[in-house]
Amino acid sequence: MTSWSSASADGIFTEFFGPNQNRRVSGLSGDIHGNVDGISGIFERSVNVNAAGKDPPIKHTLPCSLEELYQGATKRVKITRQVTDRTGLTRKIEEILTIETKPGWKKGTKITFEEKGNKRPNFTPADVVFTVDEKPHSEFTRDGNDLIVTRRISITEAFTGYTVHLTTLDGRSLTFPINDVIHPNYQRVVHNEGMPILGDRTKRGILKIKFDVRFPTSVNAEQKAGIRRIFGA
């Protein structure tokens, strides 16, 4: 096996490029022959400087009404970013982000805007993440893809019949006559009147109509006798 010394390598270099060229790059030649790790170290330091880290996500809550999650909506949110240049100068930038809510989105749905966070040298800006939160509704309660509405009725209405009138989340009027005896655990189930199912707008969950029956706090002897006559007790 042929062994090349540092001197032999310099001689060959001089033969091809001349003595002046040899002296001009002799420092580099010394690094090549005697300090390979030095070049590797310089490269590693360069990579470390140029490889940008990334700040953790900036998290926000996005309050949405049930109507917005039922029909979809356009929401615009103003954010303020801090941008720092390489001289250390920091300035604030305001930006409007547009979020298109989709029918069927649920509480906990996340919307990510990549690299919309604060900006500083040698770092990739953080992502801005919005998490959907559902606002309480005066009429409906949501349970997954289902909607629940509760009507408070008297015991007389529970025995003699009751008609439910509802305005849906998209503004339609619904009427449900109920002629059954409404006991405390009674509920009317209406299919395909719940929340839209994400990814298939032709399908919806169910609507559950529940009842809170108000019983009298007291009855007199005559009323008790009348109840016994009615029920044959």
Automatic annotation (TrEMBL):
It comes from the Eukaryota. Keywords: Chaperone. Residues 58-216 form the Chaperone DnaJ C-terminal domain. One of its GO terms (cellular component) is cytosol. SUPFAM superfamilies: HSP40/DnaJ peptide-binding domain (SSF49493). Transmembrane segments: none annotated. One of its GO terms (molecular function) is unfolded protein binding. InterPro entries: DnaJ_C, DnaJ_subfamily_B, HSP40/DnaJ_pept-bd. One of its GO terms (biological process) is protein folding. This is Chaperone DnaJ C-terminal domain-containing protein.
